[in-house]
Amino acid sequence: MNSRDATAPLDWSGADSQVLYAMDKWADGFYSVNQRGHVSICPVDDQELHIDIMDVIDAARSEGASLPMLIRFQDVIRSRVRRLNQRFRLAIQDSGYMGTYRSIYPIKVNQLHEVVAEILEAGREFNVGLECGSKAELLAVLPLISDEILLLCNGVKDRAMLSLMLNAQQIGQQVMPIIEKYSEFEQLLKLADARQMKPRLGVRLKLNTRGSGRWFESGGASSKFGLTVPELVKLIKTLESRDMAGQLELLHFHLGSQIADIQVLRSAVKEIMQIYADLMLRGLQIKYLDVGGGLGVNYGGDYDSPESSINYGLREYANVIVYTVKEICDERQVPMPHLLSESGRALTAHHSILVVPVLGVHRPDSPPMSELPNDSPVVVTRMASVYDDAQAAEKSGVLLECYHDAQEIREETEQMARLGYLSVEHMAQSDNLYWSICREVLRKLTAFNQTPVSAEQIALEEQLTDMYLGDFSVFHSIIDHWAIGQIFPVMPLHRLQEKPERRAQLVDLTCDSDGKVSRYVLSSGSSDHILLHDFRPNEPYYLGIFLVGAYQEILGDAHNLFGRVDEVHVYSSTEEANGFWIEELLKGISVKEMLNQVQYFPNDLERRMSEFIRRQINAGRIKPVEGTRILNNYTRRLGDTTYCEIVSAG
Predict the structure, then answer these.
(1) FRET pair for 268, CA 20 to 30 Å: which of 239, 492, 591, 597?
(2) What is the pLDDT of residue 215?
(3) 490 near 506, Cβ under 8 Å?
C-alpha cells in the first residue's frame, strides 16, 4: 500500500481537514475529502460520481505529463453554465417576468479554445452568447458563432474591427458592437453608409452608481468606458434623424469584476432601468438589458476582503436583477427587456486546479545538541541553561522571561561572532539552542491559549513558520495573488486523514521575495500561514491551488522565464474504473520555446556553446569526449520544462 493511503491516527479525519481548510466557503459543492484522505471532485451536479484527484495525477503522469500541472475538469464548466442559467429561469418563472435571460461569456477571462467551446456546447440549450474586447478576440470567435449565437463586442474599436462587425452582420451573424465612445458611433455610421446598411448596435452607459470591491472604478461617472447621458441623447437624436432609432437594441453597464456587495448591483439596475423606461416611452425599441460582468466567486476570504469574497449567492444575484427590472417596468408601464449578464469568473474559476509538488522545506529551528563540549564558551552554556529553564517552565511569565533571556544572549553571541571571538562550531551550538528555546516557548504558550495573545507569541509564530518550497511560479500561475492580494484556496491533496501540525508558508521557485503565497483560507478566517503535514523527503507531497480557472493563465507573467505548465483536460465517465478519462494532455512550454520569446534563439546559443567548448578542447583544458558530453547535455536541457523535474519515489 502506498504511504499516502496508510491508516491515519484516530484523532483526526478527512472531515476535520475539510473543516480546517474551510472547504464549505469556497468548494461550492464540487470539492470534498474522500475516505482515502484525498481531495475529490464531484464535477456533475446531478451525479454522485466523485473523482479522486490523486488518481488523476497518477493517470496523467503515466501518460507523460510532468509536474507542476494544471488540471481542468471540463464538466465543472458545464455545471456552472447550467446553474447560472437555471437559476435565472427559476427567478423569471417565479416572478412572472415577461422576458428571457441568456448568459454571455467574456472570453478575456479564459480564451483557451477548449474552454470557450465547452461553454458554447454546455450553453446550447440556454442560447449562451460570447463577448470579445479586442481585434484578436473578435477574429478568434467569429468562426465559432452560428446565426443564433449573440456576440457582443466591447472595448476600444478601430476601423478594422468595426468593419469586421458590419461584415458579420451582413452575413447574418448576431454580432453587436457596443458603443463605448461617441467617436466609435460616428465611425460606425460612416462604414455602414458605405455599405448602404443600417447597423445593429448597443450602448454602454456611465452610471452614477459605482462598483464595489477592487474594480469599483469600472463603474461610475469616472469610468474609463461608456457614454454619458448627454452623449446618449445626442446618439439617439442622430439615429432618429436617420430613421434608425430601431437599430439601438441594447443598453449596457458594467460595475467591474467581482462585485462584493449585492446592494450596489441593485442600485445600478434601478438607475439604468429608469433610463431604459424613458427611452422606451420615447418610442425606442430596446430589446436587451446587459447588466455586465461582476458575478462574484467566493474564494474563501473574509468579507472585509472584497477581492476574495462576496456577500450573496447565485440565487440572490438572479433575483435582484429579475425582480428589480420587473418592478420598474411595472411602475413605468414599459415592456420588459431580455436580460443579459457577462459572467466569466463565475463560469470558469472552479474548473481548474494547479497541482504543486513540494520540493523541500526550510525551517529556522533545529534539534539541540545532546551534550555540549567542555570547552564551550560562556554564551553557549548560558543559552543551554535557558533551554533547561524553558523545558521546566509551567507559567507564561516564566516562558516569556526565558524568551527574553535567549534574545539577549543571541545578540551578545552575534556581537562576539562579528569580532571574531566565536568559532563556527560555537555559533552553530548557540543557534541550535536558541531555536529550540523558541520552539519550546511557543509550544507551551500556544497550549495555554491565553487572550489576548502576547506580542512575543506573535513574533515567535512568525519566526517559526516553515517555508515549503513548491515547484511553481506565483507570477505565472496565480499572478492576481501577487498583484492585488486575491486569496486562492490552498490545501494538501492527500494525507488528509493525518493532522497537519506544521505552520507553513508556500514559496515558489523564483528568486523574488514576493514569490510566495502570503494569505490562506482556514476555518478561522484568512491567515498569513497554512497548516501542513511534516514533509517526508522520500515521498511526494502535493498541494492544490484551487479556483485558478479565471484570468490567471491569461495574465500570467514569465518571471525568471518560468512558463506555461502541463495541462490535463479531464471528463467524468461512469464507465471508467476511476470515474474519468483524460481527453487531452497539453505539454507546457519548454526552455527553448521560452528563450525564443525573449530573443535568445536556441540555434545561436548552441552554436556559441559549441564554439566555446571547441576552444577549450583546442587549449587542452578538456578532452574531446568530455567536451561532446557537456555540449550534448546543454543541448538536451534546452528541451526540458522550465520547472524542476520531479523524480517519482521508488
Answers:
(1) 239
(2) 42
(3) yes
Mean pLDDT in runs of 10 for the chain (650 residues)?
45 95 94 96 91 96 93 95 96 96 94 90 94 91 88 92 92 94 95 94 89 48 78 96 95 90 94 96 96 90 67 94 97 97 94 95 69 81 91 90 93 90 88 90 86 86 89 90 90 97 91 88 89 92 95 75 86 90 89 83 88 91 91 88 68
Q: Is residue 444 part of a domain?
A: yes
Strand pairing partners for 502? 532
Query: Do 393 and 334 lie in a common domain?
Result: no
Q: Are 92 and 322 in contact (CB under 8 A)?
A: yes
Q: Which residue segment(s) compose the domain that 409 sits in?
A: 378-463
Cβ 324 vs Cβ 266: under 8 Å: yes
Give the angle 444-446-448 at the CA atoms, nearest 5°: 70
What pLDDT is attached to residue 555? Answer: 75
Identify whether 537 is part of a domain: no
Question: Strand 248-252 vs strand 201-204: parallel, antiparallel, or unpaired?
Answer: parallel
Scored b (16 or more CB within 10 A) or e, 95-122 reads: bebebbbbbbbbbbbbbbebbbebbbeb
Listed residue (513, 567, 600) closest to 56, CA to CA: 567
Give alpha helix (H) positions in 490-601. Answer: 552-555, 591-597
Same domain, 236 and 171: yes
Cβ atoms 549, 110 nearer than 8 A: yes
Whether pTM > 0.90 for this model: the answer is no
Q: Which of 522, 612, 549, 405 is nearest to 21 (CA)?
A: 522
Domain count for the chain: 3
The 3-state secondary structure of 412-441 reads HHHHHHHCCCCCHHHHHHHHHHHHHHHHHH
Claim to verify: residue 170 and residue 252 sit in the same structural domain: yes
What are the angstrom distances between the C-alpha of 309 and each of 262, 299, 324? 12, 6, 23
Please report, as a single letter, which amino acid is at residue 25: K
* 53 contact partners, CB below 8 Å, separation of at least 6: 38, 39, 40, 41, 71, 353, 355, 493, 544
Residues 382, 339, single domain; the answer is: no
User: Angle at the Cα of 589 (from 586 to 593), degrees rounded to 5?
Assistant: 135
